[in-house]
Amino acid sequence: MNISKPEGASERSAERLVHVPLEGRAYDILIGPGLIGRAGGEITSRLKGRRAAIVTDEHVGAHYLEALMDSLQTDGIEAVSLSLPAGEKTKSLEHLSTVCDMVLTARIERNDAVIALGGGVIGDLAGFAAGIVRRGVRFVQIPTTLLAQVDSSVGGKTGINTRHGKNLLGVFHQPDLVLADSAALDSLSEREFRAGYAEVAKYGLIDKPDFFGWLEKNWKKVFEGGPERIEAIAVSCQAKADVVVEDERETGRRALLNLGHTFGHALEAATQYDSSRLVHGEGVAIGMVLAHQFSARLNLASPDDAKRVEAHLREVGLPTTMGEIPGELPPTEKLLDAIAQDKKVKGGKLTFILTHGVGQSFIADDVPPSEVLSFLEEKRPK
Amino acid sequence: MNISKPEGASERSAERLVHVPLEGRAYDILIGPGLIGRAGGEITSRLKGRRAAIVTDEHVGAHYLEALMDSLQTDGIEAVSLSLPAGEKTKSLEHLSTVCDMVLTARIERNDAVIALGGGVIGDLAGFAAGIVRRGVRFVQIPTTLLAQVDSSVGGKTGINTRHGKNLLGVFHQPDLVLADSAALDSLSEREFRAGYAEVAKYGLIDKPDFFGWLEKNWKKVFEGGPERIEAIAVSCQAKADVVVEDERETGRRALLNLGHTFGHALEAATQYDSSRLVHGEGVAIGMVLAHQFSARLNLASPDDAKRVEAHLREVGLPTTMGEIPGELPPTEKLLDAIAQDKKVKGGKLTFILTHGVGQSFIADDVPPSEVLSFLEEKRPK
C-alpha cells in the first residue's frame, strides 16, 4: 500500500497521507489528530483561491466551526459559513438552493473553495453545490464522522434526495483535499462510531483478508483512538481510493463497494430510514453478514466465513441479524421489492455482491430473485 | 475539415455529420432537413435505452413535438414530454426541479435519454437536468434555432440563471447525439435567424478567414436554406467541436469562442436582457465589431478589417453600433463595470478576445481598463 507520511510530519508522527492519483484531478487525503486546527495551512499550500464558504450542521458547527474559521483567518483565507439543521432531511433541493446562494453571495470563484465540515449529509450536499456553482469550484472535505472519513468523503459522489428516492440528483465532483481529523471522532457517540466501523470492516471483507484479521485483533484500539485508529482510516481511504481511480463512475469494479449494501439499503427502506431503529452502518453490518450467509447457501463460500464475520461484528457491538432491528419488518416480498426496486429488474436476475470467503468478494449479476426470497424468509425473525 | 456524409445518406444528399471525438464520450452531430421526423432511428442506432423524456417550450412544442413523438414511438422508444414557457426566465431552479421530477417520474435510467427540443434555453435547462439525474443520464439535443444549432447545443455547457447572474449554476454534460434539423429553421423569424448568424460569422472571424470570405459571398443562400445553410451549420459545428475537444472545460483556448461576447454581454446586461431591445446574437454582432475596432485602436489590426466586418454584418441586417440599440444606455463606467464584474479584476487588467485581423483572433489578458473606458466613451452614441 502506498500510504506515506506527509512532509513536516515528524512532530506529528501519527499523521498519514493517502494520494488519490486521478488524472488531472489528483488530490490528497490527510489523516491525523488536530487537522481542523491546521486546515488553513493545508488549504493554502494546495489551492490558489483565498476565499472559502463553509457548510456545516448545527451539531458539528458548535464543536468545530470556530477552530476552523480561526485557522482559515490565520492563513489569510476570507471565509463565511452556513450552519444547517443536522440530519438526512437536509439533503434536499431547498437546502441545495440555500447553499448555492450563500456560495454565490460569497463570490466564490473557480479557484476558491466550498468546505464541507460534517458528516456524509453535509459532504454530499456541499459537494453537490461545489459541483454546480460556476460549473464547478474547488471543494474541501473535512469529514467529522468515521463513516464520512472512510467512505463518503472520498470518491466524488455527491447528491440530494428527492421524493423518488435517495441520492437521485447529484454529480461526480471530486474533492481537491480531504482533511480527516481523527481526534474529531472522539465526540461521536459509541453507536455512531460503530456504524462507521462497519464500513471499515467492509474493506477487509471485499479484498483485504489480512486487514480483516488485523481488525479482529486491534478493533478495541481503533475505538479508543491513537495510531491504530489512524491506521484503520488510512487503510480504508486507500482501499476506496484504489477502487475510485480504477472506476470513477461506477461502470464496473466500484460496485464491490456495495458489499452488504443491497440487503442493507432494503432494511433501511423497510424501517423508513428511521435512525432510532437502524442507521446506515448498522444496515450494512447486517447486510454483510447476510451476503456471507447467502453466499454460503449458494455453495459459493464456507459457512465458517459467515460465522467469522458475524462473530467479529457482534463483538464490536454491531447488529448482525434482522431480529435485532426494533419493531416490525414488512413482509419478505416487500423486502425483495426494495432490493429489486425496478419491475424490469425484478423480472430478470438481480445483481449482488457475493463472496467466496473473507476478502474474496465479487460481482454476481445472475442471482435469481426466488433464491433471495427464500433466503430472506428463512433469516427474518419469526 | 473532417465533415463527412453519414451512412445511408445517398438519398439525403445534403446531410452532414460532424463527429466530436471526446475520449470515452464521443458523439455525432447530424445536420440536415427532416431530422426531427427521423429522430427515433438515429437515437436507437446509437443509444441503448428505450425510454426518453422530452423537454420543450410551448412555441417549439406546437410545431415539432408531435412529429418527434411519432418518430420515437415508431422506433420503439417510450417517451413522455414536458412543455415549458418560452423565454430566458425558464432557466430557473424552479423549472429545473420540475424537469428533474418529470425525468424521475418517467423512470429514466442512465442509458435512457433526456431530449431537449428547442433553443438554447431548453437545451441548457434540459442538459443540466440530464447531468444531475442519477449523476448523469444520456442527453440528446434537438436544437431548433440557428443559435442553438451552431453554438449552445455543442460542447456540453449547461446551466440556469440565479439572482446573482446568468448561467451561474450548471454542469459540463456532453450530449450523446445532436440532431440539427436545418428545415426547422424555416419557422424562425428573420431577426432570430440573423442573431444566430452572428455566431456563424464568429467562427470565420476567430480563425477561418476563408469561411468568412465564403459567407460574404453566400450569406443570402444560407438565409434562404438549401445546401449552403447546411454547409454553414456544419462548418460552425466542426469549428466549435474542434475547440471543445482541445479544451473541454475552458481553461485555455475555448475562451476564443467569446470573441465579441465581452462587449456583447455588457450590452445585454445594460439593456436588462430585454429582448425587445437586444438579443444575444445582436449583442455579439456589435461586440465583434467593437472587438475589431478596439484591436485597431490598440494598433493590433488594420482598421480596414474592422470596416470589412462591420460591412458584412450590416449587409445581413445585424446591428453593428451601440447607437442602433433602442433606448438609453447606462453611463460608460457602468458598461465597464459589467465587463469587469468583479472588483478584483477591475483593479488589475482585463481579459479580452482581440484580433490581428479577420480570422486571427487571440486571447489578451493584459488589457488596461482605462483603454476600454476611453474606447467605449468614443464609440457610444452621443
TrEMBL record, chains A, B:
Binds 1 divalent metal cation per subunit. Can use either Co(2+) or Zn(2+). Signal peptide: none annotated. The keyword Amino-acid biosynthesis applies. Pfam families: DHQ_synthase (PF01761), DHQS_C (PF24621). It catalyses: 7-phospho-2-dehydro-3-deoxy-D-arabino-heptonate = 3-dehydroquinate + phosphate. Keywords: Amino-acid biosynthesis, Aromatic amino acid biosynthesis, Cobalt, Cytoplasm, Lyase, Metal-binding, NAD, Nucleotide-binding, Zinc. Gene3D superfamilies: 3.40.50.1970, Dehydroquinate synthase-like - alpha domain. The keyword Metal-binding applies. Pathway: Metabolic intermediate biosynthesis; chorismate biosynthesis; chorismate from D-erythrose 4-phosphate and phosphoenolpyruvate: step 2/7. It comes from the Bacteria. Zn(2+) binds at E199, H261, H280. GO terms for molecular function: 3-dehydroquinate synthase activity. Residues 196-345 form the 3-dehydroquinate synthase C-terminal domain. Its EC number is 4.2.3.4. Its cofactor is Co(2+); Zn(2+); NAD(+). InterPro entries: Dehydroquinate_synthase, DHQ_synth_AroB, DHQ_synth_fam, DHQS/DOIS_N, DHQS_C. It is found in: Cytoplasm. HAMAP family: DHQ_synthase. Belongs to the sugar phosphate cyclases superfamily. Dehydroquinate synthase family. PANTHER family: 3-DEHYDROQUINATE SYNTHASE, 3-DEHYDROQUINATE SYNTHASE, CHLOROPLASTIC. Catalyzes the conversion of 3-deoxy-D-arabino-heptulosonate 7-phosphate (DAHP) to dehydroquinate (DHQ). This is 3-dehydroquinate synthase. It comes from Neorhizobium turbinariae. The gene is aroB.
